[in-house]
Automatic annotation (TrEMBL):
PANTHER family according to UniProt: GLUTAMATE DECARBOXYLASE
Protein's name in the database: Glutamate decarboxylase
Catalytic activity of the protein: L-glutamate + H(+) = 4-aminobutanoate + CO2
Highest taxon listed in the record's lineage: Bacteria
EC number assigned by the record: 4.1.1.15
The species this protein was found in: Microbacterium flavum
Family according to the record: Belongs to the group II decarboxylase family.
Length: 467
């Protein structure tokens, strides 16, 4: 049955926008349609006010502890954003200097991630990490196809190995590009991908393994070096040479500054490509992602298109065509503004707040921590066994939302779906003072729920969490 627009909107939603007397002007309508183009014009101040008034009803970004996406930049960045909003990143001929800055940014990332020769690595900006993951996966698939054909073998039924806690973009990749998703389930003992499990799921049709630096559900790092070692052993015993793509959507902009001795990047020969989100811990407004390959050999040349700019040659590899160039300039601004030491200070401040919150929540009788925020500034907790049967973390999430705090509750991934957790993401701008304000509300709402004399009505099953 086809859903009508009215049914999708809800029967009680009005189809018109009424202007208050404040906006009434001679010759201007006082009612504008919501779902059809108005027949005539309105003054810019009026149109602006209507849009602004509705947008301000969204949640307070500073109190949104659900999202990884950056919600704050300084005044100089905001000015730069407005001044460069018209730049189209794909038009490298019209905006050659923005194109050059894009190249500088991913070359900086290649260096930050210890590429053997950063100047000869290759990368690109993207709309976000989802596009970057798609590109990384496509390169793995195409390299596998080339190797199989060169050996006179079929290219049927490719598969990609990853933990069940991957972000949904990897499920999309496998669906869109006809790749079997082979998931390694999480367990209580192995809360991230278990390298020992790879021997049972990697075989000749495996195009690669995805390792996550900052699992979406909990913020934990997967052990990339141990995964690489397990694949080394698989190659020793079977001859299969399987590469790693590191999904560093969050952690690739944390680990270089807070865990510089941790080997997870191009220091490991098996790592072919890495992606990150410029709009997460890259400290830029949405939407911006990056993907970098360790060298040109890691990205099959038949996936790369070439355009001319400034009389030279610019390789380009992306799914989207026209897209904003402003965020690329904002990333370059952040790189220049903070440098290595500034990034270390900003990310350390966020992690300190996350670990402080985790410590305080762990001390509350109602909760058990899943992790403590010591990887990226993200942590999760669950309701302590036996604490109560009157309420759940979904009820607590709703109570916190009434105070303005967005703190999601959701089931863990496959084989752990009976466990429900809540998660907090600490971003730049969430201070110790705001953390104390949140803790006060968390304490009060938990006490309210604990005071209930009977159970709240049962809630419908909740969907998995995919943000």
């Amino acid at each position: 049955m086809t859903t009508t627009p009215q049914a999708a909107r809800g029967d009680d939603e009005r189809d018109e926008v009424e202007l208050s007397p404040l906006f009434a002007r001679p010759g201007e309508a006082t009612v504008l349609p919501k779902f059809r183009l108005p027949g005539g014009e309105s003054l810019p101040d009026t149109a602006y006010q209507i849009v602004r008034d509705e947008a301000m009803l969204d949640g307070n970004a500073r109190m949104n502890l659900a999202t990884f996406v950056g919600t704050w930049m300084d005044d100089h960045a905001n000015r730069l954003y407005v001044e460069s909003a018209d730049k189209n990143m794909i038009d490298k001929d019209e905006y050659p200097h923005t194109a050059a800055i894009e190249t500088r940014c991913w070359t900086m990332l290649a260096d930050l991630w210890h590429a053997p020769d950063p100047d000869h690595a290759i990368g690109t900006s993207t709309i976000g990490s989802s596009e970057a993951c798609m590109l990384g996966g496509l390169a793995l698939k195409r390299r596998w196809q080339h190797a199989r054909r060169a050996a006179g073998k079929t290219v049927d039924a490719p598969n990609l190995v990853m933990s069940s806690a991957v972000q949904v973009c990897w499920e999309k990749f496998c669906n869109y590009w006809d790749v079997e998703a082979r998931f390694v389930p999480l367990t209580e003992d192995h809360r991230v991908l278990d390298p020992a499990a790879l021997a049972g799921v990697v075989y000749e049709n495996t195009i690669g393994v995805v390792a996550i630096m900052g699992v979406t559900y909990t913020g934990m790092y997967e052990p990339v070096a141990e995964i690489a070692a397990a694949l080394d052993e698989i190659q020793r015993t079977t001859g299969l040479d399987v590469k790693i793509h590191v999904d560093g959507a969050s952690g690739a902009m944390i680990a270089p500054f807070l865990q510089p001795d941790l080997a997870w990047d191009f220091r490991l020969d098996r790592v072919a490509s890495i992606n990150t989100s410029g709009h997460k811990y890259g400290l830029v407004y949405p939407g911006l992602g990056w993907v970098v390959w360790r060298d040109a050999a890691a990205l099959p040349d038949d996936l790369v298109f070439r355009v001319s700019y400034l009389g030279g040659d610019m390789p380009t590899f992306a799914l989207n065509f026209s897209r904003p160039g402003a965020q690329v300039l904002l990333q370059y601004y952040v790189f220049l503004r903070l440098g290595v030491e500034g990034h270390r200070r900003v990310q350390a401040a966020s992690r300190a707040v996350a670990m402080y919150l985790a410590q305080q929540i762990e001390a509350m009788p109602a909760f058990d921590l899943w992790n403590d925020g010591s990887d990226i500034p993200v942590f999760a907790w669950r309701l302590r066994d036996g604490h109560t049967t009157n309420w759940t973390l979904y009820d607590l999430s709703e109570r916190l939302r009434m105070k303005g705090w967005l703190v999601p509750a959701y089931p863990m991934p496959a084989d752990l779906t009976e466990i429900t957790v809540q998660r907090i993401v600490v971003r730049n701008g969430f201070s110790h003072d705001l953390a104390d304000a949140f803790l006060a509300d968390l304490t009060a709402e938990t006490a309210f729920l604990d005071s209930l004399e009977g159970p709240l009505p049962a809630r419908a099953p909740q969907p998995g969490f995919h943000h």
